[in-house]
Amino acid sequence: MPQKASKILLKEKLNLRPFSQNYAWRYACRAGRLIKYLSSEYSEWLKEALIVLKSRHKKQKTIDNPCSIDLVFGIEHPKQCDLDNFIKCTLDLLQKAKLLKDDRLVYFLKAKKIKAGQDPYIEILVRKIKPSFGNLYSKNTKENIIIGK
User: Fold this and answer.
1) 20 to 30 A Cα–Cα from 86, which one of 16, 106, 112, 135?
2) Which residues lie closer than 8 Å to 137 by C-beta, 6 or more apart?
């Protein structure tokens, strides 16, 4: 788990619709080969989001340390969307904006989706951590999960 009060490296609220990975890629067959490319919708979303992030974080140093990320996706119909599809596009956005060196640096991730009506948004909170490679659950807590019983 992340260490106590870790240093906040980035805090952002984007008033943009979260983008689903399901719509990010398109495929075409060219000369008998399958080609994968960015959809025009995803390209436009990235362009708009990058303009906002780069204008707000001009002097932000690229995060190149292990970190934890909290994400909140405010969407119109949360029951109709898979949460994990928003995560990949958001982490890729942080990399393309050069705010995060590589999403492999994310050791802990907390995400949730909530109903936001007609005003969708993405909240991002990145904290510096010291990764621990021990057990995920401490031995003496009621929070332990026993699988297979």
Assistant:
1) 135
2) 143, 144, 145
